[in-house]
């Protein structure tokens, strides 16, 4: 029963077929000059209703985030993010390494920022003082690192604050598919129509083998990004390997079918925990569930063969029972009904 992470998974059959097809096809031009890259780029533009968007395929979400932030933030700029954001705590300073910028972590329940917190924090910078970082970029993660979702209205409110302070807006969409599937709002409404300038669009956690993309909605902001990607060693020579995965993933709404399944499995898990009287740190919106387990419950679930990790909750939605530890359970397109049923039996 695998709930450790959604990047423990393999790839969907459709994505694997696309990869097998690419592997067996005659040679094609390298470094993104191939027909798969052209078609995948076209598909991204179609899905986001953004015909002018510039699309950069990459191999890792960390590279996508770091390059995006380095590109849209001056080295003296501050990047406002949640203090639990992946860019702040789990990327070993990659954004700072690529960009020279400074990450400024803010509080917020469930790794979610509010526009009030952002406004107050940016207001504390000393504008025009060479000793202080200057307003640079807002980076939000959707789904958040704690499995919560920003809807289009919340993204727009945060973006409005960022704009008022002259900042760009980046979204870490490692689980963007789960957010879209959860909200039933269009990709365009959740991103550029709500003020997002650059999206790190992750496919690896949701059915691709290794496939990430940077989507830059205003082409002017993308100027020079191709060079930056090359300098960073992320212009993959067999580019079609990543592009073909995106083609299969985005085509016919496959990405959302996969995400809907993952989200549905998480909802079932959450229901099972609630029925057994186990408190959840946050009400899950996507494919991550965070129950507060006693040592006895933890031992029982592990003995039943469940794999998951502790996830200390700095900012739970409500106080959690004493003596419990918050654990993270992540579902995926590969999570089976049987795995969830086995978990529910063990929880009960
Ligand atoms: C929210 C979030 N952003 C970015 C990443 C980075 O992805 P990668 O491991 O491909 O660098 C992850 C990976 O766990 C993540 O959870």
Can you walk me through this structure?
This protein is of the alpha/beta class and 348 residues long. Helices cover 41% and strands 15% of the residues. Helix 2 (35-47) packs parallel to helix 11 (239-250), helix 8 crosses helix 12 (254-275) and helix 12 runs parallel beside helix 14. The longest helix has 22 residues, at 254-275. The structure holds pyridoxal-5'-phosphate.
Condensed summary:
The chain contains 14 helices and eleven strands. With 348 residues, it is an alpha/beta fold.
Note the main attributes of this structure:
348 residues; binds pyridoxal-5'-phosphate; four-stranded antiparallel sheet; seven-stranded mixed sheet; alpha/beta; 14 helices
Average of pLDDT: 97
Percent range for helical residues?
A: 40-55%
Oligomeric assembly: single chain
Helix/strand structural class: alpha/beta
Radius of gyration: 20 Å
Q: Largest sheet, order of strands side by side?
A: 1-7-6-5-4-2-3
How is the topology of this model organized?
Blueprint: H1 13-24, H2 35-47, E1 54-58, H3 61-72, E2 77-82, H4 86-89, H5 94-99, E3 102-106, H6 115-123, E4 134-141, H7 152-164, E5 168-173, H8 176-183, H9 187-190, E6 198-202, E7 212-216, H10 225-231, H11 239-250, H12 254-275, E8 288-289, E9 292-293, H13 295-303, E10 309-310, E11 325-330, H14 337-347
Parallel strand pairs: 2-3, 2-4, 4-5, 5-6
Antiparallel strand pairs: 1-7, 6-7, 8-11, 9-11, 10-11
Pyridoxal-5'-phosphate is lined by residues 7, 60-62, 65, 86, 141, 145, 172, 174, 204.
